[in-house]
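User: Working on a comparison across species. This one is Helix-turn-helix protein from Actinokineospora auranticolor. Can you predict its structure so I can line it up against the others?
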Amino acid sequence: MAVDSAEPAAGYLVVRASGAAAARQAMDAVLRGGRVRSDPDQLQVLLRAALPKLPPGGVSLSFGECALRVRGGEHQPGAVLLSVATSKLSVGFAELRPLLFQPVPLARGVQALVASSVAHLLAAGDAVDPHGARAYVIGLVELVLRSALRTELDRADAIATRRRAAVDFIRDHLADPALTAARIADALFISRRRLYQLFDDGDGVSGRIRAMRVERAKELLADPAQAVRGIGEISRQCGFANAAHFSRTFRKAVGATPREFRERVLTT
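Assistant: Here's the predicted structure for Helix-turn-helix protein from Actinokineospora auranticolor:
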């Protein structure tokens, strides 16, 4: 029995919609940042756990709206696939979006609890009442999802906090032409690699600095009180090495030179 062709590494889980059509719809919503038109009928949680020795083909158990499939791995934790009807979960499918279709870290304690729960369920065999087992598996899925969701949201919040701190530092030091990723990382007490990860959703750190300098320049050029200042002075105030570099960068981003932009804005 093949649990999955792309099993997560030990210590991680993957949450996905069951069924090709539902999976495509959910994935499309995640990528586009939109809403899933309707919740999928089934949700699957795939992870690894330390399990007792299993038959070569693994074990598959079904309890009405939920199912458990396990396969033992040689020299590594076994693969566990928990399936449950979405309607049976107290946490909504939309709330689980941060977990969908990506490896999500699972705390060691939760990993151990899942391994123990699955091992005991397998050991009980036919002695387990199907209705009780259904509630047991649904509860286990709930626990795993809620624990993983809390970890992921905490991680996302930490990333957002660090990113805001980096942006604030950049804003406060825009006028310094020597502003670099190394200096920002040192100020935040993080590695440059970690800093790059905070800005891996766009043009990177240098791109963010450049974009913020252009925005600052637009503000100054559009301010009538700054009209007496020359283009070179504004370029220095925004941290550009020289007026020529400022003009090239500004024109590429805005579609007009700084002088053209100022004339257009101030005469409108």
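For your comparison, note: The first strand starts at residue 12 and ends at 17.

User: Helpful, thanks.
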